[in-house]
C-alpha cells in the first residue's frame, strides 16, 4: 500500500512540475514574440527670437579719459539703436572691463620681458534680445553705420531661437509615435500576425538643425542657433507584443 501511495505522490509531483515547466516555456515564448520599431517625427519652423551683441573699446594712459571716451561711444550707440526702433528694454549694456596694458619685448637672450605701462584698455558690450527678428538682422548687417561714426565696434553673429518649442515637441512626439505604430502594424501584417499590447516606449532626444544641412546629431541633443530656419526631429522606439 505504501508503495502505491509513493508512486501516486511521485506521479502527481511530476504532473505539477510538468505544468509549471510548460507554463514557463509558454511565457518565455510569449515574451519573445515581440517587435521593436523606431518612428520619426520632424517639423520645420522659423525662429521667433533673435539675440545679437557687439563690443566697443577705448584706450588711454588716463583711466578717467578712457572711461569718459567710452561713455561718449556708449551714448552714440544707444541713440543709434533707439533710432532704428530698438526698445530700451531690449538693450543691455555690460559692466566696463578694464585692462592695464604693457609693452612687451624679447631681450638679447631670447627671454620674454614685460615692459613699461602703455595705457588702459576699456571694453564694454551691448546685447539685444528681440522678437523682431528681421529688424535686428538688418541692424547687425549694417553695423558699418556705427563704425563710420568713429567707434571701434565689433559685431558678433546673431543667434536664433524659438520660444514655442514645447508645442513643436508635443507635435513631433505624436507624429513619431504614429509612425512607429504604423511600421509595427506593417511588420506584423507581413508576418501573418496581429499587433498586441504595447510593452515599452522609449523617447529619444530632440535634434534641432538647419534644414537640409549635414550637421551631426548629438547624444545629448543638438540645438542649432546660427540658422533662422530650423528643422527639429525626434525618435520614438516602441515595443509591441505580437499575437
TrEMBL record:
<dbReference type="Pfam" id="PF04402">
    <property type="entry name" value="SIMPL"/>
</dbReference>
<dbReference type="InterPro" id="IPR007497">
    <property type="entry name" value="SIMPL/DUF541"/>
</dbReference>
<protein>
    <submittedName>
        <fullName>SIMPL domain-containing protein</fullName>
    </submittedName>
</protein>
<dbReference type="InterPro" id="IPR052022">
    <property type="entry name" value="26kDa_periplasmic_antigen"/>
</dbReference>
<dbReference type="InterPro" id="IPR016907">
    <property type="entry name" value="UCP029033"/>
</dbReference>
Amino acid at each position: 500500500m505504501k508503495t502505491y501511495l509513493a508512486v501516486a505522490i511521485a506521479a502527481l509531483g511530476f504532473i505539477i512540475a510538468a505544468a509549471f515547466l510548460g507554463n514557463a516555456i509558454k511565457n518565455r515564448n510569449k515574451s519573445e514574440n515581440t517587435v521593436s520599431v523606431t518612428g520619426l517625427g520632424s517639423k520645420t519652423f522659423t525662429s521667433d527670437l533673435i539675440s545679437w551683441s557687439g563690443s566697443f573699446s577705448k584706450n588711454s594712459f588716463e583711466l578717467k579719459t578712457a572711461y569718459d571716451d567710452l561713455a561718449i561711444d556708449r551714448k552714440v550707440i544707444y541713440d543709434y539703436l533707439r533710432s532704428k526702433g530698438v526698445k530700451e528694454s531690449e538693450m543691455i549694456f555690460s559692466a566696463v572691463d578694464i585692462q592695464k596694458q604693457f609693452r612687451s619685448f624679447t631681450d638679447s637672450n631670447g627671454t620674454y620681458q614685460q615692459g613699461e605701462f602703455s595705457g588702459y584698455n576699456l571694453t564694454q558690450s551691448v546685447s539685444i534680445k528681440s522678437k523682431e527678428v528681421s529688424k535686428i538682422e538688418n541692424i547687425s548687417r549694417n553695423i558699418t553705420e556705427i563704425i563710420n561714426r568713429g567707434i571701434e565696434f565689433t559685431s558678433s553673429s546673431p543667434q536664433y531661437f524659438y520660444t514655442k518649442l514645447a508645442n513643436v515637441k508635443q507635435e513631433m512626439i505624436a507624429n513619431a509615435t504614429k509612425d512607429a505604430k504604423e511600421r509595427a502594424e506593417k511588420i506584423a501584417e507581413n508576418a501573418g500576425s496581429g499587433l498586441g499590447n504595447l510593452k515599452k516606449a522609449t523617447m529619444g532626444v530632440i535634434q534641432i538643425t538647419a534644414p537640409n544641412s549635414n550637421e551631426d546629431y548629438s547624444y545629448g541633443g543638438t540645438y542649432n542657433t546660427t540658422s533662422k530656419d530650423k528643422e527639429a526631429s525626434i525618435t520614438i522606439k516602441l515595443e509591441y507584443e505580437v499575437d
